[in-house]
From TrEMBL:
Residues annotated as transmembrane: 6-24, 113-136, 143-165, 171-190
Keywords, ordered alphabetically: Membrane, Transmembrane, Transmembrane helix
PANTHER family tied to this protein: MAJOR FACILITATOR SUPERFAMILY (MFS) PROFILE DOMAIN-CONTAINING PROTEIN, SOLUTE CARRIER FAMILY 2
Domain Major facilitator superfamily (MFS) profile: 1-191
Keyword RNA-binding carried by entry: no
Name of the molecule in the record: GTR9 protein
Compartments it resides in: Membrane
Entry GO terms, CC: plasma membrane
Lineage: Eukaryota, Metazoa, Chordata, Craniata, Vertebrata
InterPro entries found in the cross-reference section: GLUT (IPR045263), MFS_dom (IPR020846), MFS_sugar_transport-like (IPR005828), MFS_trans_sf (IPR036259)
Length: 191
């Protein structure tokens, strides 16, 4: 019944995908990134109900003023900045922990290939982290979440199909591995 359990995460992603368009953008994102003051206030009222949110709005304006002169760093500049080493260490620890998650066993592969699959999982996570950090400011979180959940749902349907067919066609096991990599990239870019 493990394949039903695997499909359950696709169901959750599909439910989130269906409801995501009905939620507003994040008020700080609207104000700080987009400069949309009216949209920010509208999102606050939609998320928190009717009320006076001038204190929160003023705090966001102060944050915008403080960060106005701050330059957004690219990935290489972040890697050279010593103050972010603890956060990078935490991220690397999480990426390395994926080596022990057992995704290689999901595709029912030979034991000799599983270390390569584990390496591929870590590389997929690294690719998604770098790619997401370079496009999140351009597209915003909402589009990345929506697109990520859509891709994840589609990939999980294909993964389930490939796992069901893997006993008939041995090459489908390798398709399953590729789909696992794509799922991780979609998850890393979106949710």
């Amino acid at each position: 019944m493990w394949n039903v359990l695997l499909s359950f995460s696709g169901l959750v992603a599909l439910i989130q995908l269906l409801f995501l368009p009905f939620f507003p953008e994040s008020p700080p994102y609207l104000l700080l990134q987009k400069g949309d003051k009216a949209g920010c206030l509208k999102a606050m009222k939609q998320l928190w109900g009717e009320g006076n949110y001038h204190i929160e709005f003023d705090d966001m304006l102060k944050e915008k003023a403080v960060t106005k002169g701050t330059r957004i760093m690219n990935v290489l500049e972040v890697l050279k900045e010593p103050s972010v080493y603890p956060q990078l260490g935490t991220m690397l620890l999480l990426l390395l922990s994926l080596q022990f998650c057992g995704l290689g066993a999901t595709a029912n592969l030979q034991e000799s290939i599983i270390p390569y699959v584990s390496l591929g999982v870590a590389i997929s996570e690294l690719i998604s982290t770098i790619f997401c950090s370079s496009i999140i400011d351009r597209f915003g979180r909402r589009i990345l979440l929506w697109g990520g959940y859509l891709l994840m749902a589609l990939i999980l349907v294909l993964l389930e199909t490939s796992l069901l067919l893997s006993d008939k066609f041995l090459w489908m096991r390798y398709c399953s591995v590729i789909l696992i990599f794509l799922f991780l990239i979609a998850y890393g870019i979106g949710p």
